[in-house]
Amino acid sequence: MTNPSLDAYQQVFGMAGLANRAGGYNGFGIQLQQQLQYDLSYYFNNVPPVKIMDQKTPSTANPSAVSELGNWDLVWGPALIEEKNEKGVPTGVADNALYVVKSNAVAFPGGPTLPTYVVAIAATNPSSLYDWETEDFSVSEVVNWTTYNPSNFAPSSYNGTDPYISKGTATGIGILLGLTSPQSAASPNTTLQQFLASLNPDPNTAIIFCGHSLAGALSPTLALYLKENKDLDAFGVTLVYPTAGPTPGEAAFANLFNSKFPPLPSGWQQQTGTYQSWNTMHWNDLDVVPHAWPVSELAKIATIYGQAPTYMTAALLNALQKMAISDSSNSGASYTRIQNQSLPGQLQHSSASSISIKTPPESLQDYMLQLSVQHVGMYNGIPAEGSNPQVNGLILTQPLPKPDLKLVPGVTAVTELEMILKIIDQIIGWISSRYVLVEKENATQNASADK
């Protein structure tokens, strides 16, 4: 069989993107899980049949997917969770998702060919207010890593010595470890830890944790937790490939991760591609999300796409930046990136849906459309459309092939513009709810300074 066209880094990144598919739909939890499982059957072998979609037997991956990704079997999940809002009403979206695949032979650039498992974690669902508020933006409180118990933890005061992670990251890891593979999925009725404990891999087997956006923070944190918990001792190589992630913790946590996960295993050779480093968070320098949460990086986000020429847009962006800096600073911990590699972004003037984007942004929609393109499209590549030429991505040249869209009954697809408008609503709501508090705190601090 011919080798896949994508190298191991690109394959893993592509599989992280597939975990995000559930974010493109609305529906109840079981429907969304079935939809994600059905979508994965195009890319992987042995995905259990989704009977409501008239599948009778485990899947055989589509040849076009195999030509790019290689041969992978689904071995756990997919599992996802639909949370409830503050009123106890289901959110109608997938708030977190996770699956595991295995290949018998992955050729690692500059390294050996190994049997490999990949743990793919979903990114922030743009339609999930729970993701935004409870996981992404929950950084004003921190959790001591040395005493962290994913099933029972509480924020604590920062002591300046121990490693700490944000409350949002701590919450996300607890959710992932609590997910159970459904009865109709692979390795049913098991958690990820139970599944890993059931394996008896060849000593040379590799395991890779990957994720984009929110999962760019969760994937290294989950890998470190499982490594320190000795859940990964059976694997000869443990790697992480996070992309576009916000910062999960402060300096001591970053140093701890870096010491446990060097950029290359011993004896492997460094490659020339800027995206080709393991255990390194790769990020587009025009992507707002990985600018969170170091204060010095947050100070760039209001004008990252140029100074907004309209007063209202500039005021909203400055308020957003001010709020983010306030939340980042509140605990006293200084958020610090794990080892990372920036990738050179390129401003775009239209979205994937050919919606015009004004640069500098004249409206919050312009800003969010540019953010969306930089946060997703610039990593995956943007196909040519109309008069717009193809744009090669920073990791994938062009997006993975997609099957014809077929929806599980009860599931509806979400358009890019619908996602953007939802994000705008959520950010404006967040600014409105926090602005008075921040201004009051500023007034108190100014009064103290005057005295």
From TrEMBL:
Transmembrane segments: none
Domain Fungal lipase-type: 190-293
Signal peptide location: none
Name of the protein described by the UniProt record: Fungal lipase-type domain-containing protein
Annotated InterPro entries: AB_hydrolase_fold, Fungal_lipase-type
Biological process per Gene Ontology, one example term: lipid metabolic process
Pfam families, A to Z: Lipase_3
